[in-house]
Amino acid sequence: MQSLGLDAVFGALGRKKRLEEAPAESKLARCLTTLDLIALGIGSTLGVGVYVLAGSVSRDIAGPAVVISFAIAALASVFAGLCYAEFGARVPRAGSAYIYSYVTMGEFIAFLIGWTLILEYVIGSASVVRGLSTYVDALLNNTMRKAFESAAPIDVSNLSSYPDFFAFGVTLLFAAALAFGAKESSLVNNVFTVVNLVVVLFVIIVGSSKADTSNWKTQPTCTKTDCKFGTGGFAPYGISGIISGAATCFYGFIGFDCVATTGEEAKNPQKSIPIAIVVSLTIIFLAYFGVSTVLTMVLPYYEQNPDAPFPHLFDSIGYQWAKWIVSIGAICGLCASLLGAMFPLPRVIYAMAMDGLIFKWMGKVSSRFQTPLVGTLSAGLLTGILAAIFELSQLVNMMSIGTLLAYSIVAACVLILRYEESEAYEKKEDRDPRTFMFIVKQLVNANRLHHSTRLTSQIVTWLVFFYFVLCICTTGLISAYSDEITNIDTVVLVVLVVLVVLLILSLFFIYMQPVSGKKLAFSVPLVPILPGVSILANTYLMMMLDTMTWVRFIIWMGIGLIIYFSYGVWNSGIREKRFTAKFASTNGSINLGFRNSIDTPKCT
Predict the structure, then answer these.
(1) Which helix H or strand E contains 123, and what residues bound it?
(2) With bands split at pLDDT 50, 70 and 90, how would you rate the model's confidence at 535?
(3) Vertex 528, ends 523 and 533: CA angle to 5°?
(4) Cα radius of gyration rounded to whole Å, the chain
(5) Is the peptide bond before 309 cis (omega within 30 degrees of 0)?
(6) pLDDT tens readout for residues 175-199
(7) 128 neighbors 337 (Cβ within 8 angstroms)
(8) pTM of the complete model
(9) DSSP code, position 398
(10) What's the pLDDT at 293?
(11) How far apart are CA 533 and CA 412, in angstroms?
(12) Is the model more confident about 88 or about 3?
């Protein structure tokens, strides 16, 4: 390999995949139908949230207005989902947000997103399987916990008090199931998802028979100095409680993005991925809305059990037999969530390994099972170890940051690609004059350009970056000075108004630029407003995360940067391809064999 100087390293950070080049034939089997993808989206999302979230949010954060919180969270999720749907149709490849950012942002940003997604899926899978172990152990009166603590106690701070061998074993079992074939594992997921939905429907129907709208008007017993559960009524914690509840409920919709990672295994990805994302999010919202409505109408919000709301609900109305039906649904729902969380992880590893950004042996596809066998089993082993040695609460704290960052990057990619240089203009010999006045006038398209150019594409890219920075400043100000804003502090309000005006102007300038005009199988409506709102909402939620979550995230990213600069920069598939082409042009036609082995793909 040729040596890379410092300039070459910096040049490597921005190298991109070309969207126009036809994707190579994938080694992954195209076997998943639209129904399979819908079931995968529902199964990966409708798990822990539906059995815990509605009870905890209604009691402690929003009250009966939790139904509005779920609606707001669903709307924010739909915004992100539509962005994923457009990219899933544009780039039907394994890797989801990783591939999308590789096409638009360049290799370095793509690696950061891919490394973040690996963290998200590993932690998400570990938290689900640990939750499954905790739920099953609760049904067995904590028999497993007592046995494991007695056999192998752990006395280390920030770790579990015992190794959870059950969680470790279940993780390896599911990893093996995924490694032996996407179609077979999707059939199991479909069964789990159907059972889960039937139990949710059972809860809604049976609970509705005892519903009483007066429970949306009741008030808890409290004094002037002690009113733990708010003021009562439909919104006992006020507007702030509804918004805070929406931030919490948003995490109940995390998981649908796994549908977008199946681009190389869907039979018709341009059609199936957008339909699956929209349909699965709709069904998930209806399930959350129905469950939260029944819970708060059957029992007053302040009487909810935040850890196990359904069994408590049926105990309260005298339906003890229904608890076991709910328990079966909970176990199936958690199993479906585990499959959904583990399914995309080896696909992201596969995509990054095929591009040479992480070790290529991790992306080797089994000729028999047509899945990334080594990557799947390696991911399962790492997930199992984390699930065995960490408590559920420690795992949950790291779940959201990767997802929110990926959602924001995808929304930004939608904006950049929608305004990319049009193919018609690329054929013209003339180019934009780069004078200062021309650029300033182009912000409002006073130059009356009817097709996107290289200049307008660059203007949009810089505006999107500027908008990102403004979102960070705005949401950081709101989270840090919320009390001052509530008390109408003049200085803080003036700064906030200026930032909001700049946000609006940024979106207005983007809107005024000509679009590329490329025909798309599916396109996000209301561009740039909808992706802009999605970025703002996701940034705000990231700002609400605690400091230790950011510290752990920074440590993880530091490990990733070491891998990228010591391995990925030098082994990138794009670098190899360009180096081969350059060498061949100067020394005649030559084949260095960079793309002939079974474990390296053809470049898109």
Answers:
(1) helix 107-139
(2) very high
(3) 105
(4) 25
(5) no
(6) 887 777 655 556 776 787 788 888 8
(7) yes
(8) 0.76
(9) T
(10) 92
(11) 11
(12) 88
